Backbone:
């Protein structure tokens, strides 16, 4: 065979290999990875000494190289590190997975990163994933999630949640395109809780440093402090200095007010105790300043403290937070807040085709059933099977009680006629 013939044959084989390896990636997109009805298997392959170092130094953010395998796809030379605050664990580490840590252009199913949540703070295992599904159903920006058994070097570590990172990929999915321009090139910030300094939207002064401490820039990191945090300082200052009756107009260009009210109302509906109106100040959210605009939007994150109790007051901590207190002092936004609560109750109670339970309870049951075997077999979980069974029953009792409570408590707060069954 001539050299040109051998070259043509080699190119043909190469093309065939590329096409064969590309098809699974195209067929198994992120919709499959984040399919909540599937219990996945994720494998990490890495040097055993690196895995031991990661566990021993679980409070550090040191990255280690690894390969990740999911179904018949493998992505090599990724970076993993321990992550979390109260959820950090030496026996069952929560993990951040960066596909582009050592190869800048590398992605997996188009994603640059994911989070493997160790589920150590929720014996039910599904509080956050159920909440995110409800938020997405009601139009609040939220990560997609699914479940997996995680293996490291073929050893079962336990049940984990696969969580979509809040990054430019999520922004593109959530905010879409305008005139062909993908809306993911704005300013994204992760809110950092400052230990010992709970914050409830009080004005921190003209110096931008306190805002930079709390709002960690995740995009456009190289821009000036004024470009990054100046608009946040302005938003906070206006919220504090403007009388409540005059607040809507100056704030509307700087904060998507309907979206904000919806986000806070939904957090209340799921009885989230560690969110925007957290027990120790604001916590667990991202803030995104839209591309080429001054308006900000809240993005939900870390909702595993939801479903605290069914009689969680519908006005819980409203007076503590400057922004919400002043907004809800106006009839327009107060009415909007309670309208969203009513909508959430209706959505939770809605019986979809083929179901006998309301949507929220059906979603809880579906996810609990999907993880039941993996939860029992988890060798690293910090709670017993009895703890999980008790958490499951408590969770399944939540929707009916919460729907009734919200409807009654909202009617009282609005001085409206009480629905049947209210005391």
Residues:
């Amino acid at each position: 065979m001539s050299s040109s013939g051998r070259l043509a044959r080699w190119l043909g084989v190469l093309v065939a290999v590329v096409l064969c390896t590309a098809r699974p990636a195209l067929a198994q997109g992120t919709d499959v990875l984040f399919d909540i009805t599937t219990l996945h298997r994720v494998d990490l392959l890495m040097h055993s000494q690196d895995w031991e170092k990661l566990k021993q130094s679980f409070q550090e953010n040191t990255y280690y190289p690894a390969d990740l395998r999911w179904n018949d796809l493998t992505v090599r030379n990724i970076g993993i590190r321990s992550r979390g605050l109260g959820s950090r664990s030496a026996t069952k580490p929560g993990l951040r997975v960066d596909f582009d840590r050592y190869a800048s252009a590398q992605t997996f199913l188009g994603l640059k990163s994911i989070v493997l949540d160790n589920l150590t703070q929720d014996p039910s295992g599904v509080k956050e994933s159920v909440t995110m599904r409800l938020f997405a159903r009601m139009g609040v920006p939220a990560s997609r999630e699914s479940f997996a058994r995680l293996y490291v070097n073929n050893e079962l570590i336990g049940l984990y949640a696969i969580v979509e990172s809040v990054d430019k990929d999520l922004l593109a999915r959530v905010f879409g395109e305008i005139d062909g321009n993908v809306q993911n090139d704005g300013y994204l910030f992760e809110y950092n809780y400052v230990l010992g300094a709970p914050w409830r939207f009080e004005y921190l002064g003209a110096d931008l440093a306190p805002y930079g401490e709390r709002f960690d820039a995740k995009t456009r990191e190289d821009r000036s402090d004024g470009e990054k945090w100046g608009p946040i300082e302005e938003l906070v200052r206006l919220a504090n200095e403007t009388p409540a009756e005059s607040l809507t107009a100056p704030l509307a260009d700087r904060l998507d007010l309907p979206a904000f009210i919806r986000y806070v109302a939904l957090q209340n509906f799921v009885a989230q105790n560690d969110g925007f109106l957290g027990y120790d100040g604001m916590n667990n959210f991202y803030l995104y300043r839209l591309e080429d605009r001054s308006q900000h939007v809240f993005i939900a994150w870390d909702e595993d403290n939801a479903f605290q109790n069914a009689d969680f007051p519908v006005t819980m901590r409203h007076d503590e937070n400057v922004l919400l207190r002043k907004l809800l002092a106006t009839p327009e936004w107060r009415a909007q807040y309670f309208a969203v609560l009513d909508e959430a109750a209706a959505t939770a109670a809605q019986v979809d085709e083929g179901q006998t339970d309301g949507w929220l309870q059906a979603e809880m049951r579906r996810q609990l059933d999907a993880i039941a075997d993996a939860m029992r077999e988890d060798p690293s979980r910090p709670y017993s099977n009895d703890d999980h069974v008790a958490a499951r029953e408590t969770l399944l009792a939540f929707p009916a009680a919460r729907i009734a409570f919200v409807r009654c408590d909202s009617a009282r707060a609005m001085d409206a006629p009480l629905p049947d069954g209210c005391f």
